[in-house]
Model the fold of this input.
Amino acid sequence: MHYLKSPKKRLIVTATENGGATIENNIIAFNEWFREQASVDSSKIAGTAAFLGNEEGVGMIATRNIKAGENVMVAPTELIFSYEAALASPEVGAYLEGLKAWQAVVILLLSERSKEGASKWGPYIKLLPQHLPLPMFWEDAELAELEGTQVLQSSLEYREYVEAEFLSLKEFLFDLHPDVFPPKVFSAEGLLWGFGLLRSRSFDPLAGASAALVPGLDLLNLALGGAGTGQAQWVQDRGVLAGVLSRAGKGVLTLKAVEAIKEGDQICMSYGEKSNSELALDFGIVDQTRSEGAYLLSLSIPEGDTNFDDKVDVAEVSGLGESWQFALVGGVEPQPEFLTFLRLVQLQGEDTFLLEALFRDSAWERISLPVSQQNEEAVCVCMIEGCGAALDQYPTSESTDLGLLAQPDLPARQRVAVSARLSEKRALLSTMLFFEQLKEKLPFMEYYQERRLKQLGLLDDNGISTFEDFMKDGIA
Done:
């Protein structure tokens, strides 16, 4: 199997390409540079870059005991690879106005990398990994381990997206100014590397549309054990407004300890509420302590539905639209909004009276609880069949994956791939079980008509008509 549009060469920087410097020398140079550039008393910097081994790579360790709430280090605005920094670049800034923020940041990074030791960010750039572990950079044989997964699909989509963006930049910018943007520097491979680097090293409040590279603060490895277990976190300070770096003042981004850290311990952070499949996609890592899984499900109202327009109106009134994405999490019941959207999609026959204009503003609330046994059964069947079809796309079973993960010598990337696909499977299996169990309860559930009659006082709490005694007396 061939996964097209892959990079033509691996992005590896050898010792020779790095000027003969070892990783240890690069770390020493970076630490000295950061202390000089940070413009603060070095005693206030409580973390330092360190090589933690081939598996974890470069990380951060505490240089002294750190109290909870104490600042570990700060990064002044002028050190940060941001959109504002890109626009201020004397070499490329004049050409970047109007570009996407991530494009401008990556172009600045490539420009500075081409200067080698002459860049003011030189020691930081030398410390950056030139070969990223993200699946979008994997070889075909490695990607084959992700067959059937959303991780594979998203990784290939990332490649295609960046390549399309490169072709656009090449036509409308790079080729028009080859003296400013030489092809050897501003290549498709370079843009993809910068894109992957930015995705894997930017966190709130500098993430998404405000993504930026923050020297020093981006060294923290993942804290194992799920979200909320990190020892430190990024905190915006003056000059950093709403996640966007301000041009005014000497703003800083602070790394703050959220718990006490002992001298010599590695300082880690939470990467957020992410499943192993999400960690694999964006960082090329997994957390073996996490047993829950996750699967991102996209739902839409079929355009061929005879009630398409009415259903879209109801969804829009609720704040959604004709298409929506929901996260399925293993061991967690589906979100109420997810069930309501499913009922809306499956609303057919006599139940469609709820789509009439009279009920438009209240329709979403009315279908937030079971509508009819027919509707609820259609919801269960579509989800059971859908989860089953998704599970059929994986070439291995859950038990096979668990057996592979039990092997201590399993290659690192294969372990990431197996953990990612197991994460998705667990979410699908858990969701399928939920709807299978719900389907068995359908004959005993309360539906819209029964709830409505109770509201009108025509049924008691046991579902018995309040008129039975009245009719028994022969009075009509």
The two ends are 76 Å apart (CA to CA). Residues 1-20, 238-250 have pLDDT under 50 and may be disordered. Residues 412-441 form the longest helix (30 residues). Residues 136 and 155 are 5 Å apart (CA to CA).
